[in-house]
Structures are given as C-alpha cells and as structure tokens.
Amino acid sequence: MKKLVIVVPAYNEEESLPKSLSVLSDVLQQMIDAKKIDSESKLLVVNDGSKDKTWSIVVDASKKNPLISGINFSRNFGHQNAVIGGLTAARPYGDVFITIDADLQDDVNAIPKMIDQYLNGYDVVYGVRSARATDTRFKRWTAEAFYKLMNKIGVEMIPDAADFRLTSGRVVDELLQYKERNLFLRGIVPKIGFPSTKVFYARKERELGESKYPLRKMLALAWNGITSFSVAPMHFVLTLGIFTTLISFGMMVYSAIQYFMGHVIAGWSSIMVSIWFLGGIQLIGISVIGEYLGKVFNETKGRPRFIIQDNLMDDQN
Ligand code: UDP
Ligand code: MG
C-alpha cells in the first residue's frame, strides 16, 4: 500500500494547530482503517520559524500520536519555502503527498477524494475552490484579474487552485529539480505535466488565528508569479518605447512645419510634458530591468531555500 505524507506549513498557528492536528490525523486514521493508504502514513508539520508555541505543540503531539511528525525551520522562510521544505523532508518516507494549510480553511473531506483520484492513476490532484463566498469582494476581484493576466502572458494556472493539492512521488521528484529561490508553486506544478485532475471543495472562513497573508504579501506573491515566469513586462516596455519614439517623430515634423511657417512656438508646455512623460517611461523601463536583474542576482547566489533545525522524522524512524 502507498504511504501518504500530509505536509502542513505552519507559521504562528498555536491557535488553530491543536484542532487541525486532531482533525487531520483523524482523516489519516480513517483512510488507514479503510485500507486506502499504508499504516506508516504521516502528518508532517513544517514549523516555519514561528514565534509562538507552534513547535512545542507539534513536539508534544508527536509524542502522543505516532502519525504526527514535524520539522522545525531555523527561522521564517515563507509559505512557499515551507511547502517545498516539507516535501523535501517527506519525499524519502512517502509515495504520495498532500499539502494543506494549517488553518483548516480547506475542506479535509477532499483529502480521501484526492487519494481516490491518485489510486485511479492521477499524479496531480488540484484542490479547486468551487465557491469563493468567504472571500471579500476585493480579493475575489483581484484574484480573477490575476488569473486573466497570468493566462495572457502565457503562464498556465489552474484558476482557484491554491496550495492544497496532491502530488505523486515522481511529480515531487521533478518539482525538487526546480531550484529557483523565487518559488511560485502554483505556476510550476502545471508545467511539470503528468496526468492531473481536480477535486472541488468549498473554502471556509479562517476560524482561529488570523491570516498570515496580508495584502502586502499577497501582492508580493502575485508580482513574483508574473516576473518569475515571464518577460512580458519587458516586452510591454519595449512596445511603449517604440510607441513614444513614433510620437516624438510626429512632434519633430509638427514643430518643423511650425518653424518654417514662421510661427513663434511657445514651447514651454510641450517641453514640460515631454520631459515628464519620457522621464516617467524611462524610469518604468529601468525599474523593470532592475527587477529582473535583482532576480538574477538572487538566483545566482543559490542560497538555501530553507534550513532545517530539528527533524522529528529522523528520530521516529
Ligand atoms: N505560512 C507559513 N509561513 C509564512 C506564512 C504563512 O508557513 O511565512 C502558513 C500558514 O501557517 C498557513 C499557510 O501558510 O498554514 C497559509 O497562510 P494563511 O492561512 O495565513 O493564508 P491565507 O489563507 O489567508 O491566504
Ligand atoms: Mg488561511
């Protein structure tokens, strides 16, 4: 039978973790009892440098329940790195992997359905939100605009699929070959290929604790998604540059005609407009180049994406 490892990134989740651990380990136990998965399956909590009691909750739970295990990062590395760190640590122990947030916003009833699809031969099963009723109108609107934009610039993404998904061992092996520091898993996983399908569920409101994804982090993730996968912004700036150059040619002809017709040109306003306009365009262009240069700088350093301080998996096995 196949060993499942459920990877749960957790950052300051002392409020929601006790409940999540019991709910998720119950789900695991039920699937073990139903002989769907191997009895050595695990719940692997990734403590992403929490400043609260998250890690001690995991350590205590792992002593009481052999299904529960954890790894402890040396500091906060961010959600995407917590997921990839969890999968890296889990890979030697498991055959199939599910990633889910610690706050139980995602419906745990989708987990057995994902496993069914895996047993049907699918390598990737995306958890897709069928209803976004719990999101604010603003979040829904920005999410929709984001998916549209990503599609336009050629990044294949599954709309309304977050990081709640199943991946088979061979997909995780391929995923771990993607060494980028600026991780955007939602864009990478569809690129890997293999047979994939979706399981739909209704996403709930966060019951305990508060979101670790304020608007600032959400925008940073979206920007990362665009710039890590596409040079479309550079193409856009090029088009803009060509367009403004054409306009400036038109201006040249216009002012030459005015000159030969003997008109005195009170050029102050047009000069001011051009200076500001071109200055703005140039700044945008430079900053876009700088953005990619910064990415290259970060990637070439090749620093570790996460650092594991403690690993309960090692002690337990
Ligand atoms: N998380 C993490 N590291 C971070 C921020 C968040 O591991 O730096 C975890 C968090 O504990 C949760 C998941 O990532 O399990 C998603 O975060 P959250 O629920 O706050 O995001 P939202 O659901 O509001 O988008
Ligand atoms: Mg959440």
Automatic annotation (TrEMBL):
Residues 6-148 form the Glycosyltransferase 2-like domain. It is a multi-pass membrane protein. It comes from the Bacteria. InterPro entries: Glyco_trans_2-like, Glycosyltransferase_2, Nucleotide-diphossugar_trans. The keyword Transferase applies. Gene3D superfamilies: Spore Coat Polysaccharide Biosynthesis Protein SpsA, Chain A. It holds the Pfam family Glycos_transf_2. The chain crosses the membrane at residues 236-261, 273-293. Keywords: Glycosyltransferase, Membrane, Transferase, Transmembrane, Transmembrane helix. It is found in: Membrane. Its main location: membrane. Coiled coil: none annotated. Signal peptide: none annotated. This is Glycosyltransferase family 2 protein. It comes from Fructobacillus parabroussonetiae.
